[in-house]
Amino acid sequence: MKIEKAKSYGFCFGVRRAVEIAENSQNAVTLGPLIHNPLEIQRLAENYNVKYVNNIDEIDENIKRVIVRTHGIPKDKLQKLKEKNVEVIDATCPFVKKPQEIVEEMSKQGYDIVIFGDKNHPEIKGVMSYAVHDRVYVVLTPDELKDKRLREKIATVAQTTRKLSDYLKITNYLIENYKEVRVFNTICNATFENQDAVRELSKRADIMIIVGGKNSSNTKQLYNIAKENCESYLIESEDELNPEWFKNKKLCGISAGASTPEWLVEKIISKIKEMT
Amino acid sequence: MKIEKAKSYGFCFGVRRAVEIAENSQNAVTLGPLIHNPLEIQRLAENYNVKYVNNIDEIDENIKRVIVRTHGIPKDKLQKLKEKNVEVIDATCPFVKKPQEIVEEMSKQGYDIVIFGDKNHPEIKGVMSYAVHDRVYVVLTPDELKDKRLREKIATVAQTTRKLSDYLKITNYLIENYKEVRVFNTICNATFENQDAVRELSKRADIMIIVGGKNSSNTKQLYNIAKENCESYLIESEDELNPEWFKNKKLCGISAGASTPEWLVEKIISKIKEMT
C-alpha cells in the first residue's frame, strides 16, 4: 500500500514559527497553552522546560521570560507584562500582527473600525485593543451593523481564519451604505489550503487517516471533507490504528489538523507501515 | 381625471445646477451641448444667448466666458481652456468632481487606480485624467482585470450613473486578490430614484406619460418600467398627446427623463388638462 501525505496539512506558518521560538527559549513560560495539542505542550515542557501559565498574575519573580502565543494579546496586557520586569518574547503570528497594526493606524487616522470576527476569540480581543478610539464594531454578519450609524470613513479587517465569502457580505454592506470603505484582506489561507489538499487527496485515495484532536474544529472539518470521498478515520494517536482498515487498500492518504505536530504524523506513518 | 407627478423625475441635482449656472452666464458658450435636450439648448440660446461649441479650437477672441458641463473635462483640456484667456465657469457636477479629486489624491499617494465605468464616456475621460501616474484601469467587469497584476494597494471609484451591484462585482474581485482595497462609493442615486418613483406611481395609475427624448436611454428605461404596470406613452412634446388615451382613466401619472426640463413637463400637464 502506498502512503501519501496531503500537499498541505498540520501546522500553519505562524504555529510552526511559534514552536521554533519556544524551542529556542528554554525555561520560558507561555501565556496560555501555545497550541491546542496536549502532546506537543508536554513535549515542550519535557524537552525545553517551556511550561505555561494561564494569566499574568501567575508570573512570579522566578519567571524571567514570557512567550506571547500566535493569537497575540491585548495591548494593555502586553504593557502589564512589560512592567513585570520579564523578557517578553513575541510569537504573535505576523498575519495577526498585521490587523493589529492596521487597526492602530486607521483609528489614529480617524476611521471607524469594523472587525469581521468573533469578539470572544483571543485573536480579536488582541486586534480590537489596538484602536485608539472606541468606534470599533466587531461583527459576524452585516445584520449586526444595521442599527448602527457609522461615520463616513470606515476601515475594516477580518479574523485570519474566517471565510472570504462571509467577509464580502460585510464589505458589500459597508460599500453600499458608506462613502469610503478601506478594506484590508487579512484572511490567511492556511486553513483553506489544508482543506483543499484533503479534498484533492481523498478523491484519489482508498482510505484517509486524519490526525488531530477529536474536539478540534479544524480537524473535524478535514475529516468531514475526507469521508465524503473515501473511507476515513480521525485519530489522536497511533494506538487507535487498526490493521483491518488497510486491507485491500492501494493508497492511504494522510492529513493533520492545524495543531498537530509533524513528529506525531511521522509516528503514525511508521506505525501504518509496520501494520501493512 | 387626476394628474400626479412621480415623486422624483426629470433633472438631477447636477443638471439643474448647470442650467442655473448657464442662465446666470449670459453670452457664455458651453463646451459641448449642456444637456441632451434640443428644446432646452434652444431656450438657453434664445433667452440667455448661451450657445455651444463642439471643441476648444472653436473658441475665438469674441468668446469671453466658457461653461464646463456636468460631465467635467480632462485636466489637460481644462488647462488649455485657462490658457485661452477666457473666464472658465465650472458646471461640473459636484458628484463628478468627487471621483476626480479622489483619483488625483489616491494616485499621488501611490495607489493603483481602478475605475468602474465606460472609458469612452466624457465623465470617465475626465476622471481618469486626474491620475498623476499611468497605473489606471478602466473596466466594466472583473474579467478585464484578470490578466493584470496590480500593486498591493488599490483605490477604486465608479462612474456616477452605474449600478451598485455591478460595482460590487469589481470590488469583490479586488478584495479577493489584493491586500488593501480602498473603495469609494461615488455612485449617484438620482437615476435610480426616478426609476423607483415611476415604479411606485405606475402601479397606482391607469395611464403614464413619460416625457423625454425617444433616443434617451434613461427615458426609455422609465418607459419600460411604466408599461409593465399600466398603459404608457413616451412623448417628446405636447403635440403627440392624443385625447383618446385619457378616456375612462382616473389617474394619469407623469414622469420625465433626466434631460427633460420642468417647463416642458408643465406644458404637457396643461395640455392634458385642456384635453380632459
TrEMBL record, chains A, B:
Name the needed cofactors. Answer: [4Fe-4S] cluster
Cofactor binding annotation: Binds 1 [4Fe-4S] cluster per subunit.
Q: State where [4Fe-4S] cluster binds.
A: C12, C93, C188
EC number(s) recorded for this UniProt protein: 1.17.7.4
Q: Top EC class per UniProt?
A: oxidoreductase
Q: What does this protein do?
A: Catalyzes the conversion of 1-hydroxy-2-methyl-2-(E)-butenyl 4-diphosphate (HMBPP) into a mixture of isopentenyl diphosphate (IPP) and dimethylallyl diphosphate (DMAPP). Acts in the terminal step of the DOXP/MEP pathway for isoprenoid precursor biosynthesis.
Which HAMAP family does UniProt cross-reference here?
IspH (MF_00191)
Protein name per UniProt: 4-hydroxy-3-methylbut-2-enyl diphosphate reductase
Q: Which organism is it from?
A: Caminibacter pacificus
